[in-house]
Amino acid sequence: NLGEIGALPRVSFPTLRKKLVDSIEALGGPVETGEPGPRGRRKQILEQVRLGRLSVDEALSQLRELGEEPE
User: Fold this and answer.
1) Residue in 30, 54, 33, 32 with CA at minimum distance from that of residue 42
2) Residues 35 and 41 sit within 8 Å (Cβ to Cβ)
């Protein structure tokens, strides 16, 4: 019952996440692949620029490939 969620004992996030993933798998649902989505990939690109591992021009090119328009 969803109304009982507040009554759950305190569990760590990793434990809760594993239980949810196990439940999703048991129900035949899709499971995360670990690959970042567009938002995660955008953050990775910007982090690479911040660390000096990627030029601004290269970052802009990669962001455009993601369908992101620079501001």
Assistant:
1) 54
2) no
CA–CA gap between residue 40 and residue 36 (Å, rounded): 5
Q: Count Cβ neighbours within 10 Å for each residue of 23-51 and write b for 16 or more, e otherwise.
A: eeeeeeeeeeeeeeeeeebbeebeeebee
- Check pLDDT > 60 for residue 71: no
With contact defined as beta carbons under 8 Å apart, do 24 and 31 qualify? yes
Structure tokens at 11: 């569990």
pTM: 0.48
Q: Which residue has the higher pLDDT, 6 or 53?
A: 53
| Residue 36 and residue 29 in contact, taking contact as beta carbons nearer than 8 Å | no
